[in-house]
Amino acid sequence: MNATGSPTAFSTLAACYQQVRGTTMSLCAPLEVEDYVVQSMPEASPVKWHLAHTSWFFETFVLKPAGVDLEAIPSQYGYLFNSYYNAIGERIARPDRGLLSRPTVAEVCRFRAAIDDAMRALLDRADDAWLRRLGPMIELGLHHEQQHQELILTDLKHAFGRNPLRPIYRDLELPGGEAPGPIRWLDYPAGLRRIGHDGPGFAFDNESPRHRVFVVAFRLADRLVTNGEYRAFIEDGGYERPEFWLSDGWNARNTQRWTAPLYWERSADGWRMLTLAGMRDLDEAEPVCHVSYYEADAFARWSGARLPSEAEWEVAAEGRPVEGNFLEDERFHPAPLAASGATGSPSQLFGDVWEWTRSPYSPYPGYQPAAGALGEYNGKFMCNQMVLRGGSCATPASHIRSTYRNFFPPDARWQFSGIRLARDV
Amino acid sequence: MNATGSPTAFSTLAACYQQVRGTTMSLCAPLEVEDYVVQSMPEASPVKWHLAHTSWFFETFVLKPAGVDLEAIPSQYGYLFNSYYNAIGERIARPDRGLLSRPTVAEVCRFRAAIDDAMRALLDRADDAWLRRLGPMIELGLHHEQQHQELILTDLKHAFGRNPLRPIYRDLELPGGEAPGPIRWLDYPAGLRRIGHDGPGFAFDNESPRHRVFVVAFRLADRLVTNGEYRAFIEDGGYERPEFWLSDGWNARNTQRWTAPLYWERSADGWRMLTLAGMRDLDEAEPVCHVSYYEADAFARWSGARLPSEAEWEVAAEGRPVEGNFLEDERFHPAPLAASGATGSPSQLFGDVWEWTRSPYSPYPGYQPAAGALGEYNGKFMCNQMVLRGGSCATPASHIRSTYRNFFPPDARWQFSGIRLARDV
Amino acid sequence: MNATGSPTAFSTLAACYQQVRGTTMSLCAPLEVEDYVVQSMPEASPVKWHLAHTSWFFETFVLKPAGVDLEAIPSQYGYLFNSYYNAIGERIARPDRGLLSRPTVAEVCRFRAAIDDAMRALLDRADDAWLRRLGPMIELGLHHEQQHQELILTDLKHAFGRNPLRPIYRDLELPGGEAPGPIRWLDYPAGLRRIGHDGPGFAFDNESPRHRVFVVAFRLADRLVTNGEYRAFIEDGGYERPEFWLSDGWNARNTQRWTAPLYWERSADGWRMLTLAGMRDLDEAEPVCHVSYYEADAFARWSGARLPSEAEWEVAAEGRPVEGNFLEDERFHPAPLAASGATGSPSQLFGDVWEWTRSPYSPYPGYQPAAGALGEYNGKFMCNQMVLRGGSCATPASHIRSTYRNFFPPDARWQFSGIRLARDV
Amino acid sequence: MNATGSPTAFSTLAACYQQVRGTTMSLCAPLEVEDYVVQSMPEASPVKWHLAHTSWFFETFVLKPAGVDLEAIPSQYGYLFNSYYNAIGERIARPDRGLLSRPTVAEVCRFRAAIDDAMRALLDRADDAWLRRLGPMIELGLHHEQQHQELILTDLKHAFGRNPLRPIYRDLELPGGEAPGPIRWLDYPAGLRRIGHDGPGFAFDNESPRHRVFVVAFRLADRLVTNGEYRAFIEDGGYERPEFWLSDGWNARNTQRWTAPLYWERSADGWRMLTLAGMRDLDEAEPVCHVSYYEADAFARWSGARLPSEAEWEVAAEGRPVEGNFLEDERFHPAPLAASGATGSPSQLFGDVWEWTRSPYSPYPGYQPAAGALGEYNGKFMCNQMVLRGGSCATPASHIRSTYRNFFPPDARWQFSGIRLARDV
């Protein structure tokens, strides 16, 4: 997939398919068979479920509509690997995905291979008419698979985090950095702006239509909040002072007994944290990560600031280069700010951590979900979730763009989610 | 309280106090002692808790700051009757409010009387400086009490609804009407508009600041959705077809086993419904009521329409007279549309039922919560709730205005909440 | 009801009826209307439910079979006041009893009066045939009502215990005592014994048939365990040392966060406890009370002893006078041992506190439940409960006997339940 | 292990160790790696947990006391593989056992091998003093391992039962049989009997001391209840008629939505059932299996009979040959009665299915748990469980005896548990 995210010819589409599907398998290379099986919470899925579900997507939305019938695939796979498409039929309860020892990893890999063979054959013989009809679906399937690449890493990290043996995904160097100077505030004037996707490249339906929005003047932090800054919040009693918290957030903090971001552990020698490269000392220069919306919001209020709206974020990000610490960098962890010079423009917008916005996930004016089952991809989740922007260290570079809207419930912490501050003028 | 909602002199304030506090007690006149005690679900409160909590509000935010100490009031009342003000101290768990037989109703009434005596004395001796300092707090306390007047009715209705004896609150006539003609769609052009409160009258902090918002062209239904229309949705399998529902909504429907609005019951002779005047046959001409946001949203999708945003609603309502079926009408139930002639402007905007909007409850740009404990009044609930507009048959007329933002979780059904449709152009 | 517990003539039966029904109402005399309504946990019931349920019993099992139809009684009362008789029809869910404000206390009292009138009329005109047929049912109904007299007190105490105002049921003197000397162990030889009820007096079906049981030689404590002894267990880390606890008990202690008996509170000045006469300092000489089976069992293990079996208890109690601190003493609280002289026989067997035995509640060999709905009275609870013996300070004296088998789940603490130790020889 | 269950020399003990440990691994031979990982409910454990826990037992209770320190074993294994021994330290929460992908199956097998090597070395150099000290512990460890052999099969069956693919453990022939004739009732006279273990062979502490018990005359069914007989109970509305059920049982039936034994499925062609050899048609001649105590008790009441007490069962079984359908038969499923001739003595006492008794699991008179951590093996579970007798098709033949007391909570269904009826005379 190229930087524009949109293949324009058969050869490109086939190459993209090959590349994206291959990346998924590469991510799994360090795993033991057992690592594919476990599900550490209802919101996470076993790795082998991700491998199978992404394949089921191509089977269901490309191969079947194209008239390709894969006889050898057990009929129950549809039941097992459907995720939330009610229009496609029944499916196994989400929290039960970790109960299944079968199909085995080897069987799932055979399923993937069968899908890949059929897809290759289809792409080989495709003509222009096919491309117009099924090309968009294949492209969607690849972006869908990239989303699951990120989930494979975050779900695996969560499972490893529940295991007292603290397994290591990959033994990586994670070079530290110097704590950046104070946040600089960048000013943006009030005005009628346009946000949302329009144009030739790929985008999900929830990014459309591009539309006008009036943005009040605001200030945006030039960088992400660091671990060091977040530690100061903790040490100032941030988790014990309800005045900083939303009511639901305070409730979540009580029920789930939060005292620090997920994966932080207090030891005799200070804070330590879990990474995909194992346990290590807290690096104060790194962007803070694995915080919920509630924690991000409470931190912002403690700071005398607030979180940006998604419109504000997009206004600041539009037209800026999509550069940063992505999946391809194989750090799998946010990185300290490289250079903290005053550039006059925001750093770390893309990659490192998803940035919580204060915007609930809602349809844009005039939003129309896709027809059929794919209409369930985005629209039906537009309630009780908050928008995050910018991608993370587990997001493929070709997957992200300034109009991209990610969304999670406000208490979710297992994604690489962090904080950028904003302020009223 | 006058139509502008804002007293301008001592005498007015004292008269408002008298009137609002008296209305609360009048609402309780038909009750048995036992009716004040029960709590039928965690979200509801016993009537005597409402009576005490609204009095505690004046004690805490007016009398104590004014240096008035009421010695005779047991010290535990603060613990018992605080609601959600963390800054004021600990409080009894919300679901436990119905466990308390003491203080008795008589004791609570004595508590109210003691507060009223002290408040009257305070208002009698108040001078201009007092008025500037404490007047706004008293005014807030009266609007707060009006909110609890509505809750007294809805919580009581819920408790009666759980009781197989189906008690009757008041034996009222509920004259029916003729089913209105088809919905007419009113067109509103795109443009930069202003919404939110500004000016001299009272408003809650969440209605400010008044700010510009770009509104895309839209169409709004000229009236509310009726029971008859909603029945057609049910009969068309609305509750069995996931394609109409948000994901969380479908989950709520499954978990809570919804098959119709709250208080509807299918009998051999057709639908019947619970009102505060007892059980009666469904009146197809009445506005549908006691639906959750999820149901309202599903109904709208089934209709090929959508719910309005709060900005759209306010654009349509601004400047229109605040007239309708309110608490003072003592119907305590939505009324059929009086005249269905084509007026070119929306009917039933105020009163009858709160209208669900598609807008999550979020702060306006530049929103600042009040300082101190009262800052907890609104701001900390700005997550996981949806905005409702327009007031209901249980709302005092002097309490509502076009900028008023009510909010409830999307699965709440025990309020008088209904549906107005909107459409993209 | 006389000491033998069995009326032998019309006049006696009518007098018993009058006395027992009157006692129930006397127990309620100190209550406020609100006190009748609340339900502080699913296992407890509102007082007005007890008043109505005991009346429903006579209506259902005596008046209806006798052909007496009370037209004025609302048909839903059967649904509301049935407890667990599946054979009699549906009933309201137990945890929902506290949701009902209606029928009011006054209506319930009218229901009781109507039942009493009808019962008196029935008893007036009864002849020998009637007596043979319905006399046993009436007698059962009176013993049933006595059980609910005890529950009225324990359920009320529980509700008062949840209320931060700590209401007082009655303002009573609770004279203290001197801590008794060390426990003396009474020896009982091995042998084939008979336990269970046989003979003319009243007994519940679960006390029959009288049967042979081989009892291994054992030793029984001559008195109950005191608060002082139990405090030593607490101070020795009894609640922190799993080696004393059954597995399910340790789990209950963790889940319910037990650190002392129910109603004990640690204050700056030492332990205090809730009584029906309000809060007071712990009296070390009193029998310990409001402990679960798990706590009683853990205390016994810590003591190097064990709890007696119900057969052992009955062997020790048979033939001994039924004397002690009962409901009629109106202390409503266990009393210190009056005289601690060595009598050679066990003290405090009856009254004060129910004594947990190590015996699960099971049918006696040859047990036959009564036919029809009354067969549900006892037999269907013979699982997951433990037997308690001897009655308490809330038990009417005429209600208890040496063969009486009470039963509660092992984690129940709100009854007046205490500890007597036993030992192997 | 020989039929007496008790090794008498080094060589025997070493051979027993070899044999039992080898059997465990043989049972796992048909499994895929993934099958070792899953945990289908909190009561079940992953197979690899069983493999590790049984090894941890020898490490903890034999090797460490013998001074053998296995340095290579990760220190967290003690935390991971301890089950319920509070005296040994903290342990992972039971429901979390299925979250662990590491240690891998290969690592667990290396752990087993290291333990086996050390055990062999220990046994090689053991002298008489060692044997006296550690022999009983080793023997206990082997019986403990045999219990887990049975659990490996039942936990695996449960996991396969949750999987829509319905995996097959082993592809076995399960020859059917002819439905037996009517139950014959065998008479046993009243009398003072002795039950419990005494003598040289191995037994668990809960089987002691042997003691006298008076047994009332009773009648015992000469065979187990069959699927066909149980089907008649279902078809007679057994699951819809509360009069047959214990109160807690009826509640379990409602909450867990029981309509048939676990693993039964109604298809268009009649009942089918899951076995370890896959799905097959219900064989009416086989003993009914996978019923809870509540279902067994309800069936008995429907039959006009009851379940036997454990004393009755033991009186009938004492002295009879320990023969039946055991683990070694590798059927892993109950078998139809071979010959239904009137033998005058009960058939199927051992093997096939564990037989629910009406006896709650309680200590025998004079019972003393072992000292130290092993005292937690049995005694602390003596509450809220029912005794089962006789072993099953998943029990090793050398593991069972007439005094053996198994125990499970009354709602457990995933064991091979069935029904034998008894009657009063």
Task: Explain what the structure shows.
The structure is a homotetramer. Chain A is an alpha+beta fold. Chain A folds into two domains: about 10-160, dinb family like domain (Four Helix Bundle (Hemerythrin (Met), subunit A), Up-down Bundle), CATH 1.20.120.450; about 185-425, Alpha-Beta Complex (paralog of FGE (formylglycine-generating enzyme)). Chain A has helices at about 10-30, 45-65, 75-80, 105-125, 130-160, 225-235, 245-255, 295-300, 310-315; strands at about 185-190, 190-195, 210-215, 220, 265, 270-275, 280, 325, 350, 355-360, 385-390, 405-410, 415-420, 420-425. Chain A has a four-stranded mixed sheet with strand order 12-11-10-13. The first copy, chain A, has a three-stranded antiparallel sheet with strand order 1-4-14, covered by helices on one side. A three-stranded antiparallel sheet of chain A has the order 5-6-7, with no helix packed on it. In chain A, a hairpin with a 2-residue loop joins strand 5 and strand 6 (about 270-275). In chain A, helix 7 (about 245-255) crosses helix 8. The first copy, chain A, starts with 9 loop residues before the first helix and ends with a strand. Chains in contact: A-B, A-D, B-C, C-D. The interface of A and B includes residues 84, 87, 216, 249 and 375 of A.
